[in-house]
């Protein structure tokens, strides 16, 4: 039952960091600040959960604990879409244009791209899943280079606007967009429940999973589509933030030392919320907005990643 | 009975399995032998649906493998491949429990636990059932994986080089277990094996493959002859009879 008490502890921690974020230095104008903070914290909980789940699924499907879904190039595609918009329509398009439309365009591009990538992969039977990663990596680099190319050509002032988009941020999230994201996420997660029981078996590897009667190609295809949609929603909502997933999923594995996804899903979600809400608190109250949350996350996550690599190589 | 009807599989231009037809008897141990690259493992993978054949078909008890639901097949046929590297933190009992997945879909019943206990006892893993897999030696790990396939309670058990990296003691132990599975429980066991003396002593039937084709098949006495083995392996072997068992001496 130690597992349950650890989960409870995480739950309390997550609750505390949410409450902390909501009520610290609330000030006299709480009726103005509170709804705004509530909106932000809702975005944090949504993004944190989505990223954690997507990364966990992706690592299980690929049987690799040092991968993040960003390897299939969705982050880079998001930046490319944003840059292209500014390149052709000018920076005003980002600030003036309806955020919902921008959100919808970004999601549409990312999901369609992922589906094409999967199509390429699954057209032939028995294609190795690492082929997908390789393809994604190449496309990601291509998108990245193309983005830099356009960024070099545009006006420096316009570039400033894009630079803002390069880092995930929970400031300026619109309620309408948040609701859209929540609905999509809800539907996708509902669909995911159909496949949760297969996750433990998939973690044993392809051959064992087939041996135990999992319809491997069917299940993996659907799980990868779920991952793509979840990542697209999170990225379009706040910007590139997939690195967070690597961090929280691995912390969940270290903390719980289990293979059971029913536990791991909730654990990584809660850790993710703690990291984001705690990080946002740091950004607002300690650094007073002088830095971005994703900078902190990337710094902590990067250090942890190096630690993981060093630990793995010692084995 | 497992019926393989003119199955072929090629990678690029190379035919790895070339128009192979073979019937596997029920309740017996059948060994696939042959030199490296003969297509033994590929054939085993095709029979167990891990790979699909380019042409031809496999029937298990009269049902076509590629038209049967994977979950139903998992109750009929179990396959264990040679490399079983896992980065997961699993105890032996956890691993064996996975053998019940085709029946319980993850929610273990009392009956499932009975099967798990039985499989653990069968492989003599009781003392280490709570140990984690990364704490075990190669032989113990192999036994744990075999226990998982036993817990799966299938009529057909397919093993790809189950003696890989095992010393003589553990090899004999595993072959004896397979013998008991066939003799006591009436399971049909199909193994790919490199050591022809193990094949000779412990199997009922031997299928010899070479270059993707069946070179010879039959009972142990029919296959373990200098002539047949020379055709299969391309080397001279002298066959000695020791304690009524045919032993090949190939250290010339």
Automatic annotation (TrEMBL), chain A:
<keyword id="KW-1133">Transmembrane helix</keyword>
<feature type="transmembrane region" description="Helical">
    <location>
        <begin position="40"/>
        <end position="58"/>
    </location>
</feature>
<dbReference type="Pfam" id="PF01032">
    <property type="entry name" value="FecCD"/>
</dbReference>
<feature type="transmembrane region" description="Helical">
    <location>
        <begin position="7"/>
        <end position="24"/>
    </location>
</feature>
<dbReference type="GO" id="GO:0033214">
    <property type="term" value="P:siderophore-iron import into cell"/>
</dbReference>
<keyword id="KW-0408">Iron</keyword>
<feature type="transmembrane region" description="Helical">
    <location>
        <begin position="264"/>
        <end position="283"/>
    </location>
</feature>
<keyword id="KW-0410">Iron transport</keyword>
<comment type="similarity">
    <text>Belongs to the binding-protein-dependent transport system permease family. FecCD subfamily.</text>
</comment>
<keyword id="KW-0812">Transmembrane</keyword>
<keyword id="KW-0472">Membrane</keyword>
<feature type="transmembrane region" description="Helical">
    <location>
        <begin position="70"/>
        <end position="89"/>
    </location>
</feature>
<dbReference type="GO" id="GO:0022857">
    <property type="term" value="F:transmembrane transporter activity"/>
</dbReference>
<feature type="transmembrane region" description="Helical">
    <location>
        <begin position="289"/>
        <end position="310"/>
    </location>
</feature>
<feature type="transmembrane region" description="Helical">
    <location>
        <begin position="173"/>
        <end position="192"/>
    </location>
</feature>
<feature type="transmembrane region" description="Helical">
    <location>
        <begin position="129"/>
        <end position="153"/>
    </location>
</feature>
<dbReference type="InterPro" id="IPR037294">
    <property type="entry name" value="ABC_BtuC-like"/>
</dbReference>
<dbReference type="GO" id="GO:0005886">
    <property type="term" value="C:plasma membrane"/>
</dbReference>
<protein>
    <submittedName>
        <fullName>Iron ABC transporter permease</fullName>
    </submittedName>
</protein>
<feature type="transmembrane region" description="Helical">
    <location>
        <begin position="101"/>
        <end position="122"/>
    </location>
</feature>
<dbReference type="InterPro" id="IPR000522">
    <property type="entry name" value="ABC_transptr_permease_BtuC"/>
</dbReference>
<keyword id="KW-1003">Cell membrane</keyword>
UniProtKB/TrEMBL annotation, chain B:
<dbReference type="InterPro" id="IPR027417">
    <property type="entry name" value="P-loop_NTPase"/>
</dbReference>
<dbReference type="InterPro" id="IPR051535">
    <property type="entry name" value="Siderophore_ABC-ATPase"/>
</dbReference>
<keyword id="KW-0408">Iron</keyword>
<keyword id="KW-0406">Ion transport</keyword>
<keyword id="KW-0067">ATP-binding</keyword>
<dbReference type="InterPro" id="IPR003439">
    <property type="entry name" value="ABC_transporter-like_ATP-bd"/>
</dbReference>
<dbReference type="GO" id="GO:0006826">
    <property type="term" value="P:iron ion transport"/>
</dbReference>
<dbReference type="InterPro" id="IPR003593">
    <property type="entry name" value="AAA+_ATPase"/>
</dbReference>
<dbReference type="InterPro" id="IPR017871">
    <property type="entry name" value="ABC_transporter-like_CS"/>
</dbReference>
<dbReference type="Pfam" id="PF00005">
    <property type="entry name" value="ABC_tran"/>
</dbReference>
<dbReference type="GO" id="GO:0016887">
    <property type="term" value="F:ATP hydrolysis activity"/>
</dbReference>
<keyword id="KW-0410">Iron transport</keyword>
<keyword id="KW-0547">Nucleotide-binding</keyword>
<protein>
    <submittedName>
        <fullName>Iron ABC transporter ATP-binding protein</fullName>
    </submittedName>
</protein>
<feature type="domain" description="ABC transporter">
    <location>
        <begin position="2"/>
        <end position="236"/>
    </location>
</feature>
<dbReference type="GO" id="GO:0005886">
    <property type="term" value="C:plasma membrane"/>
</dbReference>
<keyword id="KW-0472">Membrane</keyword>
<keyword id="KW-1003">Cell membrane</keyword>
<dbReference type="GO" id="GO:0005524">
    <property type="term" value="F:ATP binding"/>
</dbReference>
<keyword id="KW-0813">Transport</keyword>
């Amino acid at each position: 039952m130690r597992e349950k008490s650890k989960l409870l502890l995480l739950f309390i921690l997550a609750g505390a960091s949410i409450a902390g974020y909501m009520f610290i230095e609330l000030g006299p104008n709480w009726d103005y600040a509170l709804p705004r903070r509530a909106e932000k914290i809702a975005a944090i909980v949504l993004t944190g959960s989505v990223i954690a789940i997507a990364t966990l699924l992706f690592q299980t499907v690929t049987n690799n604990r040092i991968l993040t879904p960003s390897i299939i190039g969705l982050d880079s595609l998001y930046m490319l879409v944003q840059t292209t918009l500014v390149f052709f329509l000018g920076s005003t398009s980002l600030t003036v244009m309806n955020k919902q439309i921008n959100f919808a365009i970004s999601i549409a591009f990312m999901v369609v791209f992922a589906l094409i990538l999967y199509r390429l992969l699954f057209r032939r039977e028995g294609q190795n899943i690492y082929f997908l990663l390789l393809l994604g990596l190449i496309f990601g680099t291509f998108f990245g280079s193309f983005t830099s190319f356009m960024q070099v050509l545009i006006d420096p002032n316009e570039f400033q606007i894009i630079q803002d988009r390069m880092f995930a941020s929970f400031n300026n999230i619109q309620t309408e967009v948040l609701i859209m994201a929540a609905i999509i996420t809800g539907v996708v997660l509902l669909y995911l429940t159909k496949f949760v029981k297969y996750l433990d078996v998939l973690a044993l590897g392809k051959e064992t999973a087939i041996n135990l009667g999992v319809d491997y190609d069917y299940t993996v295809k659907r799980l990868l589509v779920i991952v793509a949609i979840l990542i697209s929603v999170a990225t379009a909502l706040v910007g590139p933030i997939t690195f967070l997933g690597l961090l929280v999923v691995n912390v969940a594995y270290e903390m719980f030392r289990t293979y059971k996804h029913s536990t791991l899903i909730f654990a990584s979600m809660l850790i993710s919320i703690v990291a984001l809400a705690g990080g946002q608190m740091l950004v607002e109250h300690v650094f007073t907005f002088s830095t971005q949350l994703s900078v902190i996350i990337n710094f902590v996550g990067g250090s942890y990643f190096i630690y993981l690599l060093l630990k793995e190589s010692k084995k | 009975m497992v019926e393989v009807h003119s199955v072929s599989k090629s990678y690029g231009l190379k035919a790895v399995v070339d128009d192979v037809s073979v019937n596997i008897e029920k309740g017996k141990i059948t060994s696939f032998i042959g030199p490296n690259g003969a297509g033994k493992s590929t054939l085993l993978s095709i029979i167990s649906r891990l790979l699909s054949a380019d042409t031809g078909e496999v029937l298990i008890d009269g049902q076509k493998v590629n038209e049967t639901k994977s979950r139903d097949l998992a109750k009929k046929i179990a396959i264990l491949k040679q490399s079983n590297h896992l980065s997961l933190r699993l105890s032996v009992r956890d691993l064996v429990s996975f053998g019940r997945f085709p029946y319980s879909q993850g929610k273990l019943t009392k009956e499932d636990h009975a099967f798990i206990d039985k499989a653990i006892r069968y492989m003599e893993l009781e003392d280490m059932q709570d140990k984690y897999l990364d704490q075990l030696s190669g032989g113990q790990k192999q036994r744990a994986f075999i226990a998982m396939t036993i817990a799966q309670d299938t009529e057909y058990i397919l093993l790809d080089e189950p003696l890989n990296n095992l010393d003589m003691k553990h090899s004999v132990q595993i072959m004896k277990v397979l013998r008991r599975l066939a003799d006591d429980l009436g399971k049909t066991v199909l193994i790919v094996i490199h050591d022809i003396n193990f094949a000779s002593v412990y199997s009922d039937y031997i299928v010899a493959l070479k270059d993707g084709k069946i070179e010879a098949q039959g009972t142990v006495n029919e296959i373990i002859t200098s002539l047949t083995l020379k055709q299969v392996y391309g080397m001279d072997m002298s066959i000695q009879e020791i304690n009524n068992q045919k032993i090949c001496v190939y250290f010339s």
